[in-house]
User: Fold this.
Amino acid sequence: MLTLLEGRSTLQKRIFSSFVLIAGTAAAAAVDWICGLAVTFIVAMGLREFFGMLEKKGLKIYKRFGMLVGAVIPLSIMLRFELTRGWELFFLAAGLLTLIILQFSRRDNSGAIVDISVTIFGIIYIAWFLSFLIKIRYMDGGLRLIAMLLLIAKGGDIGAYLLGSRFGRTPLLPRISPRKSVEGAAGGLLFSVAAGVISGVLFKLPLTLAHLFFLGVSLGILAQLGDLSESLVKRDCQVKDSGNFFPGMGGILDVVDSLIFTAPVFYFYLTFNTYR
Assistant:
C-alpha cells in the first residue's frame, strides 16, 4: 500500500513538472533572445550538476571555471558575438590553456590530466552541444525548427516510456541502464519518426518526406544515445539522478539529455542541406 502511494506521489510530481516544463519551454522559445537566456541557464545548471556528480566521484575538477566558460559559449551566440570564424574553438583552446595555468598553482598535481580533461569534456559535452539550440532558433523559421526538434527528441522519450513499461521484456544495455528495454527503444524510435514526419508537414517546413523520415530516424537514435550517455555518467558516478531540479523527473541533465547530440546534428543537417 505504501509503495502504491509513493508511486502515485511520484507520478503526480512528474505530471506537475511536465506541465511547468512545457509552459516554460513554449514561453522561452517564442522569443529568440529569451530562448538564448534560457539555454544559457540550462547550460550553467547542467554543468553544475555534471561537475557535482564528478565531485562525488572524488575528482578535483575546476567547477566554477568550467561553469563560467560553459555559460560564455551560449551567451556569445545569443549576442551574435564572433571574434573569429569558429570562435567556439577559440574559447575552448583558451579555456584549456587557462586550466593548465591554474593547475600550476595546485600543490597536489596527481590526477592533473584527468581533472583538466573532464572539465573540458563537460564544457564540450554540455555547453557547446546544447548551444546549437540557440543557433537553430536564430535560423529562418527557427521557432518551428526548435519545435520539431523537441517533438522528435521528447516524443522518443514518451514512446520509449509508454511502450517500454507495457511491453518491455528484453534488456537493452543492463550494465548501463537496467530499466531500458529493446522494445522501449523501438517504441521510442517509432514515436520519433512519427513526430518528425507529422511536425514537418504540420509546420510546412521546406523538407521532403524523405528528409523528414531520415531526420526522425537519425535524431531518434541520437536522442536515445544522449539518454544512454547520461546514464553511463550517472552509473560511473553512482548516482540515480543528476539532480532534483524537477520533482519526480530529476535534474536538468535528466530532462535535456536527449537534446545533447540531436541539437548539433540537426543544425548541421539543416545547414548542409535545405537551409544553406
